[in-house]
Amino acid sequence: MAAKKGKEVITFKADPSLAKAMRGIPNRSEFIRNAVLAAMENVCPLCLGTGILSADQRRHWEDFAENHTVEQCRECNGMHIVCTAAGNAAH
Question: Does residue 64 lie within any of the structural domains?
Fold first, then answer.
């Protein structure tokens, strides 16, 4: 069966427990596409989801961090970046 023009088939291996859990999902391809898109919306813009910064990325972050801190929001408890440069009172 030929793939639709403009579409690329991507496969992955699933362990037996994941495969079993997905058996009842009527359209697994759509489910997986939606899950991947949702995950990508929440990827760190620096490490792109790897959890690791390269030496160059780390250097850029250290320069940026000279005038910024990572703080916990008092309202939602989410972590966010705050500019600490002189004259910046906004959080």
Answer: yes
